[in-house]
Amino acid sequence: MLQLFKFKGGVKPQTNKTQSVGEPIGVAPLPSRLFVPLHQSIGGTPRPLVAAGERVLKGQLIGGADGWISAAVHAPTSGTVRAVAEHVAAHPSGLTTLSVEIEPDGRDEWIERTPIDHGALAPERVRERLREAGVVGLGGAVFPTHGKLTASKTVPMEELVINGAECEPYITCDDLLMRERAEEIVRGVGVFRDLLQPKRVLIGIEDNKPEAVAALQAAAAKLGENFAVVAVPTRYPAGGAKQLIRVLTGKEVPSTKRSTDLGVQCFNVATAYTAWRAVAHGEPVVSRIVTLTGNVERPRNWEALLGTPLAEFVALGGPKPDTDGYLMGGPMMGFAMPTMDAPLVKATNCIIASSPALFPPKAPEMPCIRCGECAKVCPHELQPFELYWFARAKNFGKTQEYHIFDCIECGCCSFVCPSRIPLVQYFRFAKSEIWAREKEKNAADQAKARFEWKTAREEREKAEKAEKLAKAAAAQAAKKAAEAAAAAAGEAAPAPAAAEAATNVPAATNPPLDAEAAKKAAIAAALERARAQRAAVEPKNVDRLTPAQQKDIAEVDARRQQAGIEAPPTAPEESQP
Amino acid sequence: MITAIAIMALGAVVLGAALGYASIKFKVEGDPLVEKIEAILPQTQCGQCGYPGCRPYAEAINKGEADINLCPPGGAEGVQRLADLLGREVKPLDAEEKPKAIAFIDEQTCIGCTLCIQACPVDAIVGAAKQMHTIVPELCTGCELCVPPCPVECISMEPIGENLDNWKWKYPVIELKKVA
């Protein structure tokens, strides 16, 4: 028997899981419209590959992965693309995101599927296949799975942890998946095992799911895999990656490190299932199991197509009349869906219909009494009451000193707070402010660098231009000098033919003096030309003057002469004929 | 008596030499306060403060020539942070605060004169003479310096709305409910 460890903190809320496990996974009927957001996972936003009016088949690529950490998006069913446009996202903000709207044709026709034999292929090809199939972490973080499947070169892979804990209340999608499709999960884990080559594989499941534990144990035994299927004590948040690693291996992931630095990698059971479907059946991720529970007549798990609008999905469960909203995710970490048009996405593990009876409105927030309950339950051993002060005062530097980024927003602190302070909301606020500031700072630094570069470049260009001008001027002068010298020589040449050589001697022995003289002559000539040009220009306003005006002008000129100012060169010719 | 004076004089000479050596050895190039002020400024290089760039404005603030409330892109928060750094009084911003915007070139109207490219302080506009120009939105600081030189008025400032990339969790507020 494997020795289990404990993580600090945690709470035991009402699990509320029995409601939705009564029936097997149902296949949700085709909705009338699908809105598939292109950005469903961490990393780059996939590029749309289809246009409005195009016919697509089930499983056809509609969004190509952009960059290595990005996962492709596929058409969930066959039909016609109606639009590639902004649509409300499954996000607490209610903002829109680029989505592909598909009108199903009802035939649910698959594109050609090509299974691969992962054992015969190079690991890179398998990772590539997972990326192309859009396999991402379905536990909620939606990190592209292929990005986690490269074994570290420096740290030997010790343990592969498969997360079937499903610790949040209400959610049962992984439970049902493990009960019904255990064999495929085990095979998927086998794919991960082959890629990472860990020393042992541990599958952790909370002990409130004995059927799932039994099913996985049976499947592992049947397939001859020596995976340890372990029932872990039920305590929220045992399903957090770092918590489950702690419980199963006793390793505590330090704040600045990742589990891979300790030789541990963690995947969700549903991720293993989709990875197997992608490898052995060539099926990309186009649907997922979603728990529909809460204030509905028929709580149940459904295999629903990604992109199904919330309104059509919840109709399957028959929401009771007093339903006042829908939560995506669990009651501890979930958020209220913004509208009924918001689609189901890869991260949607559960939809809970809420009602005032189920989730009574919180009593008003009271002052913090520093009881320390939050610090006792924090699974990351943070001090939420201190973080709360600093976040509330917007003292973000201090929140970082108290390791706000280690907070996993599990909600244990808010759950136990006797003053009902929405602690997690404060932490989320502080985190997003810090991120925004960091982004702004980076942008400012970049702008500064670019500005300095531009200034330096302009200065360099100016210097280069000045140098070029100076060079050209020097060349011009040299040319002029040479011409003048040649002219002088030419002038001098016929003369001395008749005259004595004495005149020739200074010209030959004293060329710099001659060049100087030539330059002076050139300047004088230029000045002369300019004067001639000025003289040639006739002022237009002195044509056809009346005798009175001419007289005025004559007077002005006379005054000028008296004052000792020279009359303008053009005027006298006109006014003093 | 003489000894005491000699000792004091000797002490003065030794300490003076040490101080002189330290002032040369540990000389700080530039003014560190200017760096700190500049770090707060948004680096848009827009010149709206009346100085040709953020650095000259930072230098002017350091010398006490300029007020701390002249930077519209920095906003009221920038003024607050400058006031905290310099121990000066917070003043209202000497301009109206605008939402963050980036420039946009209407490519139908652009004649390819390159005037905006020359005006852009951060080289965020690409294009060549008699070729269409366009703005690299990731690099644009929203300084508006490219707007006046455009002879065909094809550059407009487009405010950046809230999107999923820049959305932030809001400060928790207690909803006040009307009672009776």
Account of the 3D structure:
The complex is a heterodimer of chains A (577) and B (180). With 577 residues, chain A is α/β, with parallel strands linked by helices. Chain A contains 17 helices and 17 strands. Chain A folds into 4 domains: 337 residues, NADH-ubiquinone oxidoreductase 51kDa subunit (Rossmann fold, 3-Layer(aba) Sandwich); 64 residues, no CATH class; 80 residues, no CATH class; 31 residues. In chain A, the strands form 4 sheets. Chain A has a 6-stranded mixed beta sheet with strand order 1-14-13-17-15-16, with helices on one face. In chain A, strands 2-8-7-4 form a 4-stranded antiparallel beta sheet, with no helix packed on it. A 4-stranded parallel beta sheet of chain A has the order 11-10-9-12, sandwiched between helices. With 180 residues, chain B is mainly α. Chain B has 2 domains: 55 residues, Orthogonal Bundle (3-methyladenine DNA Glycosylase II, Chain A, domain 3), CATH 1.10.15.40; 82 residues, Alpha-Beta Plaits (2-Layer Sandwich), CATH 3.30.70.20. In chain B, the strands form 2 sheets. In chain B, strands 1-4 form a two-stranded antiparallel sheet. Chain B has a two-stranded antiparallel sheet with strand order 2-3. In chain B, helix 2 packs across helix 3. Chain B starts with a helix and ends in a 21-residue tail after the last strand. In chain B, 22% of the residues are buried. The model of chain B has no long low-confidence stretch (mean pLDDT 89). The interface between A and B is medium-sized, with 31 and 26 residues.
